Amino acid sequence: MGDDMRCETSEELKAFVMEAKQYTKNGKVADYIPALGKENPDDLSIAVHYPDGSCVSAGEIDKKFTLQSISKVISLALVLMDRGSEYVFQRVGMEPTGDPFNSIAKLETMAPAKPLNPMINAGALVVTSMIKGKSVEERFQRLLTFIQELAGDETVQYCEEVARSEFETAHLNRALCYFLKQHRIIEGDVEELLDLYTKQCSIEMNCLDLAKIGLVFAMDGVDPLNARQIMPKDIARICKTFMVTCGMYNASGEFAIKVGIPAKSGVSGGIMGAVPGTVGIGIFGPALDEKGNSIAGIKLLELLSQKYGLSMF
Ligand code: GLN
Predict the structure, then answer these.
(1) Is the CB of 121 inside a 6 Å radius of any atom of ligand 1?
(2) Counting C-beta atoms within 10 Å of the first and last residue's C-beta, which end of the chain has fewer, N or C?
(3) Is the CB of residue 194 below 6 angstroms from any atom belonging to ligand 1?
């Protein structure tokens, strides 16, 4: 969504943001990726995008943030289109883990060592390794173009500073990659894969764009603004199902009970929501809870879900 289309500020949403904001003081900005540590923990903003093209918002909605783990849903959609589900799910599973998103533990105890799902880091690294293209540049460009199409905003780019910061400190993700390579789940050069993965995680946008992407998933892969099918319905369905079962890491069960919408979070503090057939939601609140989810963002979604009966269950 370019600068020409603006969201209307909603007094009702503003009141929900004020209420949820109190929780930011109980959270902490992620700093294991040093460049993320600079965010203001008090920030909280939201945009809600409707299929008719209208949009309501509250907070500093112009502020950009990096997608981090939210990008995992989008790379999965691209790879399912590139390779088909049989190929993809031979290499990554469909089950929630109950472990933190960056855990290595289950890889060693499961046989074969294929990661349990595409939303944990190990699984997302496998997914990214399957993006088609002749070089890192070509593969990244394909993903970026896909994200620009989903957001309807061709100005979306990645943040070089965050990508570099993560690449230099991604020791655990490197370990996951080498483990996966040893077990032949991934092929090719690990440093190139990490280069691609850290750029993918550093793609940045504001919550209006994020709400628009959520809307495309909510509308079964169709962009309601131009009636274009951007991804097959079945792939949007698979992605939304993973958002329900694994989208909020090892807090997905509690989130399903308290909020009940397909959602995906990232350690930048972003949350993308896709309420089936209804709306797309983009939230940015960088103070995180102990599981790595936006603490006030979750509260905000809880308030909205209760007020508008958004739970799908
Ligand atoms: N880039 C981050 C990582 O790999 C993404 C994790 C997340 O957002 N939870 O550690």
Answers:
(1) yes
(2) C
(3) no
The pLDDT value recorded for residue 4 is: 40
Centre of ligand 1 from the C-alpha of residue 227, in Å? 32
pTM for the predicted model, two decimal places? 0.96
Cα 197 to ligand 1 centroid, rounded to whole Å: 10
Q: Is 28 considered catalytic here?
A: no
**CA–CA dist 278, 264 (Å, integer):** 17
Q: Which of 75, 79, 156, 249 is catalytic?
A: 249
75, 88, 197, 259: the catalytic one is 197
Residues 6+ away with beta carbon under 8 Å from 239: 73, 76, 77, 217
Residue 153 Cα, ligand 1 centroid: separation in angstroms?
A: 24
Ranges of residues in the chain whose predicted pLDDT is under 50: 1-4
**Domain boundaries along the sequence of the chain:** 3-65+205-307, 69-201
Give the per-residue pLDDT at 1: 42
Which has the closest alpha carbon to 273: 281, 65, 306? 281
Residue 271 CA: distances (Å) to CA of 168, 198, 227:
25, 18, 25
CATH of span 69-201: 1.10.1500.10
Q: Domain 3-65+205-307 class?
A: alpha beta
